[in-house]
Description:
Layout (H helix, E strand, L loop, with lengths): L3 E8 L11 E3 L17 E10 L13 E5 L1 E7 L4 E2 L7 E5 L9 E8 L7 E2 L3 E4 L5 E4 L1 E2 L5 E10 L6 E2 L3 E13 L4 E3 L3 E8 L8 E9 L6 E3 L3 E5 L4 E8 L4 E10 L6 E2 L4 E6 L10
Parallel strand pairs: 5-14, 6-15, 15-23, 16-24
Antiparallel strand pairs: 1-2, 1-3, 3-4, 5-7, 7-11, 8-10, 8-13, 9-12, 13-15, 15-17, 17-21, 18-20, 18-22, 19-21, 22-24
Amino acid sequence: SRSLTVTVHPSGMASDECSVDPIVFAASEQTHTFVLSNCSTAGVVNLNYTISGTAADYFIAPNQVSTFALRSVVAVQTSPLLLELNSTSSLFVLTCHGNVPSGYDLTLTLSLSGDPSTASTLSAANFSLDHDNQTVSFQIHTGTVNGLLSIDFSVSGSASTYFDVPSSITLPVKARIALERIETRLNFLYTNEFFIILDAPLPTGTELFVEISLTGSVFSNVSLSANNISFTGSERMHNVSLSTLNVAGIVLLQWNVSGSASPFYTVPDHVMVNVSAFMYTPVLPG
């Protein structure tokens, strides 16, 4: 019996590691599928064909060249889930899932948008990628404006046709809700006035509600001047008074935030307050 083998030859800018197993036709076979495998470079691949075997004299190899493009992505490997004000602790890592073709270049450009972008900067905004350098990292230096921050991406260069980038990454930049002058040890029949302060003003057109809940052994013997505090417009501070009765024990203050600005503020840690009673020795007559 005769044999026929079709050999596929990849060529072109993206063909470096591409391979195709030889296609062997048995006596009764007329159709075969093949797989182009191990391709790791983005760009154009050309396929040429040759035939061999004892039946090769009776067949003509395909004379057309198959040409197609392999596309790749610049993907986000790691990124923080949120950013904090006045921070440089964020680290973003981007990598090409497919190699940049040898002799070609790819320029990745970053920009910031959103309210926090007016006070935030990138550690670097332009990265040059090539066959030997396909992973980049950067940080965002946040300032004093919170809200939604978007990182926008674009590519240019001779290999840019073959790479896709994320349209954008959007993260909340969060400010703290700080507590000042809150005392963790109180005597009974005492009033402690403390302050709830926003580290950054509300993003334009938003509002914030801070709810204080009480638990603990004596929470029913403690009162607050306000359990629900609302911030609107340019408000940055509210004062609250905590008053104790003549019962000693522990009360826990816990916090919850809601409203359209709540994604842009971190909730304070709970506060445990010890309410103490007086100890005294009575004066006995004589």
